[in-house]
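Propose amino acids for all 336 sites.
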């Protein structure tokens, strides 16, 4: 779709992170790591961990209510819910249904989107398409993750564990009559040949005869596994490509972009992407230092903070971009 086909825009944003702050020094008391080691490799200094009062749907509700209020709407104005998460409350039903019940919106459409780090962008593209087609009018898009209950807090898992945090972000998407405002394009891609470079092997329905074998605790396949070198290489290749693709489809140049809001996976990846694009570092949003990688929530949290800080205002041209497990990668160009 071209920039003249835009039919929806972001009406409001909000986010929620649990109150518990976990520093690098605290992690260093659990396994062999250090504040310096984590900062050098990821840029992260702290992250948030949830407790039993903040499962994914509960955090999603808190972020959603803030976004709906920011949009100047009421909960009853929402007709569709999309929830992006890799850490659902339960295998089934989807977290969107649990969120819907918490919001008291029983009867509206509710769907989970399972695209990990690119989940929010896939969801925004879906929301935009729903509104363009007339299937929906006001869509609540939420990314929510509780990673902390599924991480390996041993020396064997430190490379992955230090990266992740918990949190939720929400955006309300609604129609616009201005073809030059709102979502101008979406670019969505995947390459399943890299699926096992960043994945959770167990439990799974592909395992026989038991999807949750006791051996998953012994062989540690219950914990996330990552080929860090491959992820870094592919992210630094795919992100510049998909950003360039979005610009080519809309006729804009990097000089026109006021702000780049990338997925917060690793500060070093985002710094490298900006360097490869020759994009001014001060026009890239970084908040991974405070929250770690919150996967489907990260872009939403970063965008909301950029709006609060005045870095996104009326007329701003903002590029959203993500790369993650799957492999999947995506970009959305939006005019506020």
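Proposal:
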């Amino acid at each position: 779709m071209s920039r003249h086909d835009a039919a929806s825009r972001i009406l409001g944003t909000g986010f929620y992170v649990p109150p518990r702050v976990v520093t690098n020094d605290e992690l260093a008391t659990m396994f062999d790591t250090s504040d310096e080691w984590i900062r050098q490799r990821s840029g992260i200094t702290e992250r948030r961990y949830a407790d039993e009062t903040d499962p994914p749907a509960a955090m999603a509700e808190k972020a959603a209510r803030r976004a709906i209020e920011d949009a100047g709407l009421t909960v009853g104005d929402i007709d569709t819910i999309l929830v992006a998460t890799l850490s659902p409350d339960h295998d089934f039903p989807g977290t969107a249904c649990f969120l819907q019940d918490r919001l008291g919106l029983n009867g509206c459409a509710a769907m989970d989107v399972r695209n990990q780090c690119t989940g929010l962008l896939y969801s925004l593209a879906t929301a935009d398409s729903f509104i363009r087609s007339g299937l929906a009018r006001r869509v609540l898009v939420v990314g929510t993750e509780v990673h902390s209950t599924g991480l390996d807090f041993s020396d064997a898992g430190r490379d992955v564990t230090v990266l992740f945090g918990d949190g939720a972000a929400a955006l309300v998407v609604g129609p616009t009559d201005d073809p030059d405002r709102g979502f101008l394009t979406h670019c969505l891609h995947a390459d399943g040949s890299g699926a096992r470079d960043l994945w959770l092997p167990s439990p799974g329905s592909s395992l026989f005869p038991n999807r949750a074998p006791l051996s998953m605790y012994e062989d540690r396949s219950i914990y996330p596994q990552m080929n860090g070198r491959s992820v870094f290489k592919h992210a630094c290749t795919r992100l510049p490509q998909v950003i360039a693709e979005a610009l080519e489809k809309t006729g804009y140049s990097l000089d026109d972009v006021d702000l780049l809001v990338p997925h917060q996976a690793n500060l070093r990846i985002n710094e490298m992407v900006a360097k490869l694009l020759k994009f001014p570092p001060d026009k890239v949003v970084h908040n991974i230092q405070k929250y770690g990688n919150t996967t489907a929530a990260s872009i939403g949290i970063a965008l909301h903070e950029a709006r609060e800080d005045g870095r996104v205002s009326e007329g701003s041209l903002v590029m959203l971009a993500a790369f993650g497990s799957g492999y999947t990668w995506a970009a959305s160009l939006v005019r506020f």
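The domain at 182-335 is CATH 3.40.47.10 (Peroxisomal Thiolase; Chain A, domain 1). The CA atoms of residues 203 and 214 lie 10 Å apart.
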